Amino acid sequence: MQSDEEPPPPPSRPAVPARPKRHVQLTKYHSPDAPLVPNDQKVLLELTGISSAASRAPLDLVAVIDVSGSMEGDKLENVKNALRFVIHKLTDQDRLCIVIFDDVAERLCLLRPVSEASRAYFEGLVGDLKTRGGTNIRAGLEAGLDVVVANRKITTGRAANVMLMSDGQDNFDPTQLEPGNVAVHTYGFGADHDPVLMRAIAERSLDGLYSSVPDSVDPKELTEAFAPILGGLTTIIAQDLELIITATQGEATIKKVDAGTYRLRTSSDVSSSSVTVSFGTLYSAEVRSVIVQLALNDRTASPHSYRANVAEVQYRFSFQGQQVNSSPERITIHRKRRASDPAIAPPRVQKEVARLQHVASIEEAIKKADGGELDDARNILGKALEALERVVVDPIVDMLRRELRKLLDLFKTEETYRKQGRATAISSLACHGRQRGGSKDTPIFDTPRMHTNREQAKQPDDMPVPSADQDAQQEEPEVPQDVLPMVLRLLAAVLSLLAFSIIASARTSGWDGGYYEPYRYGYKL
């Protein structure tokens, strides 16, 4: 049987032995104390990708392109420009396959490495794209998923993703899709695409993202929409990432876990209260935030205050075929009779709660606008903007305000809402739900590499596009992970020699050490 894929070449240089445990960092934010009476506490948990993008998972990417008749003209040309950007970003350790669809789907090539030699081949395929026929999104998506779900054999340590691009609509149930562990990122063009369907397709996968691309005369508009997610896909430093929160029996129970649109699994064990959040991939410098609402038990019978271990947190992920499990970390709160008001959370927690309320307001405004109540929708957005005035100003809060102002403009009339406002608002919900992406005006969740890609996407066509490896070389070089222990051992040796020389000097110089005399020989009388 003929293979549907080509193997990547051996790495050009031996990989630095990885210590993937250092790829992810957990940070906890919560009130230091709580009263002995029953009360609720909000805890913010953040997982951050702290590894350099120089250590990243190689990418298997399938681009699924709508070539139906409605894509004729500027739309298809903009798709071609965006695909050329993708081709130049990928390296020979990454693989690409192109699938097109109209009434039917067609795979144009194998899943093959993007080497210097194959770039011309891929660009030839892109340059020959022509419009034809109707729109069958389901056929294109199923053909694309077959490449990486059903037919791919080389999978260990590789990150499989699908990018689906269409300007149309289709009448099928996305819950019938089985993307497995493959992320499906969808891009809807113009006023005629179905944003609800495109978002549902993306969120059927574990960490896929829907993005709306408005009609524009700017040929760079689509490339700029592609660029940030591609910047993330070429900086994946953790896969199959999960966060496990377990309440301490007798101390607390978990009332609610808010992790956006990521999947939650609740433990069926009646003896424990445990929730697992599945995130999929994590990019370098990317952050995943989770708000956990804990109900603390009644401790008024306790004769004194005490430090309560109310919950335990752990995360796990895979990288280059290695499974990593963190050590459990406790959430400890001082329970006492006179404690801080449990309704007042730390500033970092307040800001994340404000963002979640911001998201709920956008969702409510969409429902009102879809029901023909556009004035009510604008009132909801206006009140959300006023609420942000009471939150401590920082860059993220400022972008949330800009996001609301933009939506208020797009919700002004039924026409602007139908043509652009609805899709833009749904795209905003998708970005917040995944804590990933954002528009060029409000790049709320951009990482440094995403920002770099956005800037490169704006460059003139005659300027060369650097590959992901070249971007990594321009960034701060990664310190080999086996160097730090060596440095610490060397430093310890130097300090030991220095201490020995001081003691020897004291012995030979007749120094009267006074109070410090007992320490000269390593003991105290």
TrEMBL record:
Q: Per the record, which residues fall in region Disordered?
A: 1-23, 454-478
What residue stretches are annotated with the VWFA domain?
Answer: 60-229
Pfam families, alphabetized: VWA_3, Vwaint
Q: Which PANTHER family match?
A: CALCIUM-ACTIVATED CHLORIDE CHANNEL REGULATOR, OS01G0640200 PROTEIN
- The name this protein goes by in its record: VWFA domain-containing protein
